[in-house]
Design goal:
Elements: E1 45-49, H1 53-65, E2 69-73, H2 76-85, E3 90-94, H3 102-111, E4 118-122, H4 127-135, E5 140-143, H5 148-160, E6 169-172, E7 175-178, E8 184-186, E9 189-191, H6 195-206, H7 214-221, H8 232-244, E10 253-256, E11 260-263
Parallel strand pairs: 1-2, 1-3, 3-4, 4-5
Antiparallel strand pairs: 6-7, 7-8, 8-9, 10-11
Helix pairs in contact: 2-3, 6-8
Bound molecules: calcium ion (CA).
Residues 6, 51-52, 94, 96-97 line the site of calcium ion (CA).
Length: 272
């Protein structure tokens, strides 16, 4: 029996209408949809594995609008590679993929110690397919085509599940963060932040009292497109400080020279 195509597939059968023949005509090229300028929000980084560029683009765009940082892999081998070199908080994994299918990717990632939740996208509503997905190490599955709202709900549920439960409201000294609405206040006064500034602040707050290096910040707040040689993190920290510490008695974000940043209500000797 021939394997059915993805329900979301936009490919017109086997014909390659006007497309140049190439050995990989069926496989769109590797696409990382991140723009060169980091613009993603949220301190949750997602790996999206989907070979249909149209579907991948649609999902990635929707996720970014929801404050997630997103990297995209368009085949199974890239997925395994990205999953092994980056720290992802969650993987959305299509089952039918070129090079290596979703089940194989899932097994390899799990075999390599990958612990974050994996949500499988399956084109078929067949029980066997779902069972195979869960057996290969996936945490949940969604059948294509799906409603984007349902995808978001599944992601939230999966992200709630692991290790640390995210509190609805976090307080450090006189700073408060509402993790659902992203509202921030200092000393009771609202502080207006961009989505990226919020994501950075939330990451520092979740790690309060601990020094976090630029590398870790980049891994959790930015995505694949992050340029390690840029000073973008320092620029964002400076902006955050200007907004948070303006008019406040104490500085909350401190610099540890050569190490990174630490968010703490206690004064630091290195404060300038
Ligand atoms: Ca596919």
């Amino acid at each position: 029996m021939p394997r059915p195509r993805d329900a979301c597939s936009a490919r017109p059968g086997k014909k390659s209408r006007g497309r140049k023949p190439s050995p990989r005509a069926d496989y769109p090229p590797f696409i990382v949809l991140s723009s060169p300028i980091p613009h993603n929000k949220g301190s949750v980084r997602i790996l999206l594995v989907e070979d249909e560029s149209r579907v991948a683009g649609f999902i990635a765009k929707g996720l970014r609008e929801q404050a997630y940082a997103v990297d995209v892999a368009s085949d199974g081998e890239q997925a395994v590679y990205l999953g092994s070199v980056n720290e992802y908080d969650l993987v959305i994994l299509d089952v039918m993929l070129p090079m290596k299918d979703g089940h194989a990717v899932c097994r390899e990632l799990r075999g390599a110690g990958f612990r974050s939740p994996i949500l499988m996208l399956t084109a078929r509503d067949a029980v066997d397919d779902r069972v195979a997905g869960l057996d290969s190490g996936a945490d949940d599955y969604l059948t294509k085509p799906f409603d984007f709202k349902e995808l978001l709900a599944r992601l939230r549920a999966l992200l709630r599940r692991p290790r640390e439960v995210r509190a609805a409201s976090i307080r450090v000294d006189d700073l408060t963060l509402d993790t659902a609405s992203h509202a921030v206040a200092r000393g009771g006064k609202p502080v207006s932040l961009t989505a990226k500034e919020y994501a950075l602040l939330e990451f520092l707050v979740l790690n309060q009292g601990r020094v976090v290096g630029r590398e870790r910040i980049a891994e959790h707040v930015w995505d694949e497109s992050f340029d390690a040689f840029s000073n973008v993190i320092d620029v964002y920290v400076k902006r955050l400080r200007a907004k948070l510490d303006a008019g406040a008695g104490r500085r909350l974000i401190h610099t540890r020279r050569g190490e990174g940043y630490i968010l703490s209500a206690a004064p630091e000797p290195g404060d300038d």
